[in-house]
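Morning!

This is the sequence you dropped in the shared folder:
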Amino acid sequence: MTPSELTASVARANDRIRSALTGATSLAALAIVAVAGCYGVHRIQPALAEPMAVLALGGVLALAIASRVFSWQRDENYDDIVLAGFRHDQPAAVARRARQLVSISDRRRFADTLDGFVIAAVKRRPTPVPVHRDALIELQPKVQLIATILRRDDLDLEPAGMVLLRRLVTDGTTSPLFRPTAQPSELERELERIRRVLGVDDEQQLAA
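The structure's back. Tokens below.
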């Protein structure tokens, strides 16, 4: 996407989030009014108030889920901006997303995820989705190197590398990690790309 397209996509996501939150607030207020009108001032019959409250609360839940989905979509847009280097788009929001991507909590979480994939492959444990076990076994040192890099809180990592890593371990449609028929070299190239974009040129930096 171009910078203008990414900006427009972020704006749409923000509008949808605001609409969902406004709708959820209105429905929550309706549920409160229905309950208060029935059990507080006794102006609304229970046969009417209770279905109103249940339906309103169901709507609140649905809109809360929708808001979360829209937030994920917006984060994907922010990740695209980080990856493309368009830092001038939504600067404050993108900066917050970049800080989150390289936070030690996220780094450790992804390191644990990589270790989990390797353990599952080596020990032939079942996984929720198919993974490329043979490639993980063959490339175990490279996967563990990435995990080591992530756990080194004295290393400043590039957010763009974290975007690539997150997509490697979550994108079940395009990631070579989840395509058992792919050549191990595909996963190897992606691991090398991630290491390079993270800003760690070679193992000498790890020994420094």
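Headline: Residues 46-84 form the longest helix (39 residues).

More detail when I'm at my desk.
O.
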